[in-house]
Amino acid sequence: MAFERINQKDWYKVLGAKPSDSPAELKRQYQKLALLYHPDKQEADVPAGEAEERVQRFIEIDQAWKILGNEETKKEYDLQRREDNLTKEGPLHAQIYLEEMSWNEDEQLYTLSCRCGGNYSVFKSETKEVSLVCCDTCSLVVEILQ
Ligand SMILES: [Zn+2]
Questions:
Q1: 82 sits in which H/E element
Q2: The DPH-type MB domain covers which part of the protein (predicted)?
Q3: What is the residue-level pLDDT of the chain in tens, covering all 146 positions?
Q4: Every domain of the chain and the residues it spans
Q5: CA of 117 to the centre of ligand 1 (A)
Q6: 30: CA distance to ligand 1 center in Å?
Q7: Residue 2 C-alpha to ligand 1 middle, in angstroms?
Q8: CATH topology for the 90-145 domain
Q9: Ligand 1 centroid vs 133 CA: distance in angstroms?
Q10: For the whole prediction, is pTM greater than 0.85?
Q11: Where are the alpha helices (DSSP H) in 1-141?
Q12: C-alpha of residue 121 to centroid of ligand 1, in Å
């Protein structure tokens, strides 16, 4: 098993999913994307360059699912991710796109779990001025990109 290679990509991102998503959610996300990018489902008039990109995307989605769709490899990958995160230096935890955060419609709030178990949160109304958000539990900071 070539586990040393599986950490090259953020497979959750490839699937448009989050590490906290359930296996059922991951599967649903995989099926949606696989259908969207499946080579057999492409329009005939898509430009060659774009068709090629879509094939690449499909291969990635498929790889992501091979890792995240299997309980054993998913566990291994999650462990690697966690270790990677813990060895990152500096107070800046990560850069993250707003749309990668969890959206809470009722509170009009974007949230993200910190590796310490705490949360980053930013109200929608603040997102125009705020680009750095502190964890509510530890001293880590994320930079929000939009
Ligand atoms: Zn924290």
A1: helix 71-87
A2: 92-146
A3: 444 444 468 899 999 998 889 999 999 999 999 999 998 888 888 888 888 999 999 999 999 999 999 999 999 998 888 777 665 544 455 888 888 899 999 999 999 998 888 999 999 998 888 788 988 988 888 888 88
A4: 3-85, 90-145
A5: 6
A6: 30
A7: 32
A8: Microbial ribonuclease fold (3.10.660)
A9: 11
A10: no
A11: 11-14, 23-37, 48-68, 71-87
A12: 11
